[in-house]
Specification:
Length: 136
C-alpha cells in the first residue's frame, strides 16, 4: 500500500513539471501579446482594420418593412483579411455579429464585434468546461 502511494506520488511529481513545461511552450507560441513580433503586430492591426471597415460599411439600409444589415459580400471597401485570419459573420437583417480569428495562433486570438460597433480582441478562457443544461 505504502509502495503504491509512493509510486503515485512520484508519478505526480514527474507529471507536474512536464505539464507546466507544456503550458510554457504553448504560451511561447502565442502570436499576439507580450512577445508579439512586428510582423504579427502588423497582421493583427490589419485584421482590426477589417473589423472597423465592416462596422463602418454596415450602415443600416432603410427600407420596407424595416431596416436591415447586409452580408460582407454586399459591403463595399472592405480590405482583404491578412493571411491566416478567418471571418465568421452572422446576420438576421436586424442585428449582426462577426469574429475574425487568427487560425495560425496557438492561443486562438480573435477580434469580434456586432451592430453596436465596439471592436473587441481576446483569447478564449482555458480550462472552461461546457455542461449541457439538465446534466451534472
Amino acid at each position: 500500500m505504502v509502495k503504491g502511494l509512493l509510486v503515485a506520488a512520484a508519478a505526480l511529481a514527474i507529471a507536474a513539471p512536464a505539464s507546466t513545461q507544456g503550458r510554457r511552450a504553448q504560451l511561447a507560441t502565442c502570436l499576439h501579446g507580450r512577445n508579439e513580433t512586428a510582423e504579427q503586430r502588423d497582421r493583427r492591426e490589419k485584421a482590426v482594420k477589417v473589423a472597423r471597415a465592416i462596422n463602418t460599411a454596415e450602415v443600416v439600409v432603410v427600407g420596407p418593412p424595416k431596416p436591415r444589415y447586409r452580408r460582407p459580400e454586399e459591403l463595399r471597401f472592405i480590405p482583404p483579411l491578412p493571411q491566416g485570419f478567418a471571418l465568421q459573420f452572422d446576420t438576421d437583417g436586424e442585428t449582426y455579429t462577426f469574429s475574425i480569428k487568427d487560425t495560425a495562433d496557438a492561443c486562438h486570438f480573435a477580434i469580434f464585434s456586432d451592430q453596436e460597433k465596439f471592436v473587441y480582441t481576446g483569447t478564449p478562457l482555458t480550462g472552461a468546461r461546457v455542461v449541457p443544461v439538465g446534466t451534472r
